[in-house]
Design goal:
Blueprint lengths: L3 H27 L3 E3 L1 H10 L4 E7 L6 H17 L2 E6 L1 H8 L8 H5 L3 E5 L6 H15 L6 E3 L4
Parallel strand pairs: 2-3, 3-5
Antiparallel strand pairs: 1-4, 2-4
Helix pairs in contact: 1-6
């Protein structure tokens, strides 16, 4: 059984990493370093995988079989290419963060926040380091694909 104080520190850590991820995604979007959408992400991974530093897979519903197949393929490619992968739940929070950023996107593009790729490995963004460290620590604890819950506000 996990001691009460350890559980609290785990919760604090996950909340801190969640905030770091949110800031990273918004910053990457503003700097045009964020690819949104499963199809767009697959195209980028095929064309330029060396420029991708983080793959975020977002889903609140694990029952979508087609989405899980896409995730499995993306995870496999990212793992083979040495790209950090993070699964998150909280698609509604992602829509709050990123939905209003680009009003030029059509409704279909805005709705596909299931896969996001952060590019630009030259950017030494402290939030990228924090998210990457969390993913490395999770893998050391035998969590092959780290998971995170984004808190609604």
């Amino acid at each position: 059984m996990i001691p009460e104080e350890s559980f609290g520190s785990i919760e604090n850590r996950m909340q801190s990493v969640g905030l770091a991820l949110e800031e990273l995604l918004v910053t990457a979007e503003k700097q045009d370093c964020l690819t949104i959408g499963i199809y767009e992400s697959a195209k980028l991974l095929n064309a330029d995988p060396d420029n991708v530093v983080l793959c975020v897979l977002a889903a609140d519903n694990e029952d979508d079989v087609a989405l899980q197949i896409h995730f499995t393929l993306l995870q496999s490619f990212c793992c083979d290419s040495g790209i950090t992968i993070l699964r998150v739940s909280g698609v509604q929070r992602l829509q709050q963060l990123l939905g209003a950023v680009d009003a030029n996107r059509n409704q279909e593009e805005q709705g596909d926040l299931h896969c996001m790729l952060v590019t630009n490995p030259q950017a030494d963004h402290c939030r990228l380091q924090e998210v990457g460290t969390y993913c490395q620590e999770s893998r050391r604890l035998d969590q092959w694909v780290p998971e995170l819950v984004l808190q609604e506000r």
